[in-house]
Structures are given as C-alpha cells and as structure tokens.
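User: Study the chain.
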Amino acid sequence: MVMMFPEVKDDNEKLHKLVIDRLLIFKESFELIAHVTPKSLHNGLFVEFQDEVATGHGVLQEWLLLVCQALFSPENSLLVKCPEDCRRFFPNPAQLKPEQLDLFGFCGRVIALAVMHRVQVGISFDHVFSLQLAGKEISSEDIQCADPIMYRSCKKTLEMDADFVDSDAMGLTFVREIEEFGSKKTVELCPGGNNIVVNSKNKEQYVNLHIQHCFVKSITAKVAYFSRGFADMLCKPRLAKRFFQATCLIGLDCALLGGDNAIRVKDWKAHMYEGYSETDEQICWFWKVVKGMSMEQQRQLLYFWTSVKYLPVNGFSALPYLLTFSKTSGSDECLPSSHTCFFQLALPHYSSLAITQGHLSFVCRRHVACSFRFL
C-alpha cells in the first residue's frame, strides 16, 4: 500500500515546510496544503508550530492528528460519525455549499499524507465510504454500521408479508425527506416517485433507490473531491481507485487507526532505554503510577511523550525509536517535559510517589497534553 506513495526524503531541505499558528491550525493548514501543487508535497513535510522550538517527526505527527481531529469534528459537518463506532466516518449526506467541496479535497490530501508518513490518526472510514472510493456498488447490508436505523427499516420492508405491503398500510411512495441548508424538503427517488406506491413487487427497487440516493447520489461529489485530493499524493494519481480496490478496510484501519487494544505496560517498559537506573525510586514510582492509570490516561501520557496517541498494530516494536527517560535536576514543583522528535521524557528527580502521581496526572489531562509539550 505505501509503495504507491512517493518516498519521504530524509533531507529536511527537500521537505515542504509548514509554519503553523496553533490558534489558526485549520485555516492555515488548509491554505498551505490545499493550494499548493501536489508535486511540492511528494518529498514529505517539515512542520513547525509558530513561536515553538520543537521540530521533527513528533511535531508532524501532532499536526496530522490535530488537523484530522478538526476535519472530522461535528463543528465542520463534513463527515458523519458512525453511531456504533465513533472511529469510523462517512461524508455527510446533507447538502453543502459548492465552496465547501474543496475541504473534501483537502481532507483527501491530509489522509494520504498520514498514510505516506505512517502516522496513525485514530480515525478511519466506514464500509460505505471505502466502497465508494473503490467504485463498488452499495447494498442494504453495507449500510449497517453507517445507519443502523435505516438498515433495520430497509430489512424490515424487504421481509414484510406481501399482503401487508400491498394493503398500502405503510403509506410509502418513492420519495424521501432530506435536509438542505437547514430546511427539510421531499425529493423523488425516481421520476414520478411521489405517485408510485410501494408494493410487494417494487419494494426491492424502492429500498435500493432509497439507499442509492442517501449513500451514493447525495455524496458523489464529496467522494470525488476526496478521491482527487488523495490521488494527488500518489506516485500515479490515476491509480487512486485501484489503491482503494486493492486495500481492504482492514488495511486502511491498520494504516490510520493503529492498534485499539489496551496499552501493555510490560511492552512499554521493554521498549525503553532508561536514562535512570531501573531500580531508582523515581522509575519505580513512575511505572507504579502508569499501571494505575486508565487506558485513556495512558494514551495521553504516550501522546505527551511521543506525539503518538495510537500505537501501530504491532505495538511499541513498530515505533521508529525506543522511548527514553532523561534525568533532570528540577525541583518537586517542576512538571515533566518531553522532546517528541526523539521520544524523550525529561523526568525530574521527584522526592515521593504522591508528587510523581500528581504531576503525571496533570500532564495527562486532555487540554494539557497539547499545550505543555515542550516545557
């Protein structure tokens, strides 16, 4: 899969440089990614945050994660979260303004850049979206995750007794209600659909047209813009559809979601190069606190330390570097700090377990993990 992307260069001088203001991360990222030639991005990215000294792969990882979170957020209404799996998304069927379609092209480029740089962003696609990108047909079984309510309704309609359907007890015709720019309207699923009553002979056609209108016709332009943006990052853009045909949803999940299993502290410790001695009190306290954390707290600590929130499928062994401690001479009032570009945690020589626990808990809070990274 990654072989279809250009090779990321090791020479920083050949990378496309981005300097981003954290407060304007979505707006500036769109301008600096969507409006440049694809070729200028093919060597890879070098990302810096304005007025911050940190550089390197850790900053790139953080930037990709934050941009993806913004792109897939409910506030932007570009993509809809699957009700039963909040990690999976598909394009919002609601009508968008023409200028908003460019955001789908931007989204395609960003997702492709994440795959190209081997960064797991914790977000992937619903089955419906992946089928669309591969140019495949959508059936009623395919919408089960994207819209469980519609799936059950369609299945119930198809399984209904013929006599009951023919009695017109359901009162259905070949129309559906949609939302367009904040107001609801009724649209026909086929010419004259308003006057075609659903019966036992045409119920399969009705269900199919209903699904096609909701999951194909209403998002065709959005899928096309996303696919075009994604294709911009491939060595051969014309092979975009073939990429999604050859890459099953499991393959995309491995590239984008990473592993969803609980972090194993034993594995974490095994991939450490410790600046402290293993028997030092500070290290014993550190691992005792980590073992007592929730899974989300452990993810936040890992993110603070490395800018990696979602481990690769193969776990710590698939990370590019060993994680390291560095001993600092700070007092008990000092927080830990991190150098995410080379996976180093600067841990002060704390005097007690309680102080260690308090400071680690502080840096694990979601809003702190993004703002105290380079103390």
Summary: The two ends are 38 Å apart (CA to CA). Confidence is low (pLDDT under 50) at residues 369-375.
